[in-house]
Design goal:
8 helices; alpha/beta; 5-stranded mixed beta sheet; single chain; Nucleotidyltransferase, domain 5
């Protein structure tokens, strides 16, 4: 596969090889030696395009090192917003939200989309039937809500995401579970109701968990961000060919 996609997030680094829109195996790394991990992936094969998206700006030293390991290095971080502008997206969008919007545009041409990403944060983004970005919101993710209740109220325990959850709790633990899970469910149902004509697309770690709790039909695409990155890399390859 010709391109290498790297997503550096808040808690982990993800990477995948791609050929056009076809994704290979996804790699995941948690630790302080992310750059060494990336270099280990290109030891045997140099990619045509290496697309690196990071929540943290890359240093000039890192950029120079990575650029020597590929034919073309594309960066999307706080210091490199050109890709967003070229796609008609606002520069305040984080790379993962931007990639999800681009992938949804590609997959659901001619249809508006409501894109919900269930991660550390809970993000909701909307596109119209022409693929134009019309706005979105950022809220607190599921696990982050459980942690916040424990951290900021001394009396409440840290609760894990339950496999099953009642609408109304009957104990302290079940009340926390119901408050977080049912609260997110009601929140998302409200967003879906804003544009009932839209295709609903869920992604992120808790996408399947919440999709089965929704009343409406949901498309769950767990690799939506990587698909958006693959699309950007592939478009660049075609441009330079």
């Amino acid at each position: 596969m010709s391109n290498l996609l790297v997503e550096i997030g808040n808690t982990a680094l993800k990477a995948a090889w791609s050929d056009g829109m076809t994704l290979g195996k996804t790699f995941r790394y948690q630790g302080e030696k992310g750059l060494d991990f990336i270099l280990s992936l290109v030891r045997r094969q140099k990619p045509v395009v290496m697309l690196v998206c990071s929540v943290y700006p890359l240093t000039e030293e890192d950029e120079n090192l990575l650029s020597g390991e590929c034919e073309r290095l594309l960066i999307l971080d706080g210091n490199h917003r050109e890709l967003l502008l070229s796609k008609g997206l606002p520069t305040y969008l984080s790379y993962d939200r931007a990639a999800s919007v681009l992938a949804a545009r590609y997959l659901f041409r001619g249809m508006g989309c409501t894109i919900v990403d269930f991660g550390t944060t809970l993000t909701v983004d909307f596109t119209d039937r022409d693929g134009a970005y019309v706005g979105g919101n950022i809220s607190v993710g599921c696990r982050t809500r459980f942690k916040a209740l424990n951290r900021y109220s001394r009396a409440l325990p840290l609760v894990n995401t339950p496999e099953e959850c009642a609408v109304v709790g009957s104990s302290e633990t079940s009340s926390i579970e119901s408050g977080v899970i049912t609260g997110i469910q009601f929140e998302i149902e409200g967003y879906l109701g804003l544009h009932p004509e839209n295709v609903a697309v869920f992604t992120g770690g808790d996408a399947n968990y919440f999709a089965k709790r929704m009343k409406s039909s949901i498309f769950v695409i767990c690799n939506l961000v990587m698909m958006g990155l693959a699309l950007m890399a592939d478009e660049y390859v075609k441009k330079i060919d």
